[in-house]
Amino acid sequence: MKSASSLSVLVFVIVLGAGLGVDYALRGSIPGWGANAGGVLALIVAMVVASSVQVANQWDRAVVLRMGRFQALQGPGLFFIIPIFDSVAIWIDTRVITMSFKAEKTLTKDTVPVDVDAVLFWKVLDPKKAALDVADYQVAIGWACQTALRDVIGKTMLADMLEGRDAISGQLQTIIDARTEPWGISVISVEVKDVLIPASLESAMSMQAQAERERQARVILGDSERQVAEKFGEASKTYANNPVAFHLRAMNMLYEGLKQNSTIVIVPSTAVESMQLGGLAGLTALTMGIGQEGSNADQRQPTSPTIVNGLLSTNGVTTPTGAEV
Asked: What CATH class does 97-197 carry?
């Protein structure tokens, strides 16, 4: 029920005051006029007039019944009713209303219990139908939402529910709107907020996703190895047709390895001979280059290359040469 407006209270006070004033004026002019009778009459008239004045807010609609039958739909603003004969049965709010609803432990199509939370946005388009065609339209909407949600969950697979919330929201909106349209209510939208699954199933799904990502990583790694092998095959064909380029590449790799790492590098003696490192000029050129780079890395002085038992050694690096000096 809507509370009395300030205008009704003001009308009641004005009418009661006017009635008491008239009562006071009539006491001396009309013989036998009693003070109590005048005050009671003024009170009754004030109550009747004040109850006939009604004010509806901009978003409210008043359903007026006369002798139990629908008379009119009033509002917004000021309107009047006939006391005793007319009554305001219900005040309808025509603004957009939000309502949250959920389904707990509901089985999906693949028999997985889930908890689903959703929000409904709706408004009353026909206040007359909402007041006369259903006893309590708000409670009816709540039950319609819950039954529709359980129906949709029972027909949907868990994977589709987790991935396609928009589709579920669209299905819910269609079903709920079809059920509430005869009541003069329009569903604006339905939004699925959250889908909760059991903790054990969530852990299993996480492991499955991790295994899938690992499988994809291995596939990508294998494809990368295949591409690298193809490139190496193309390079081998180039080097097979150009021995000079192959030996230059080998000398560059040997030079880079000796320059950056003080370790033992073993190469075939045939490669040393083809790169002309077995001679004194080749050894000197290689050692001078290595010694110059090594002096920048640390303060040790490069030593002269030595060949012992077929190994070329410089700054702790030994290379077989296949020659004896």
From this structure: alpha beta
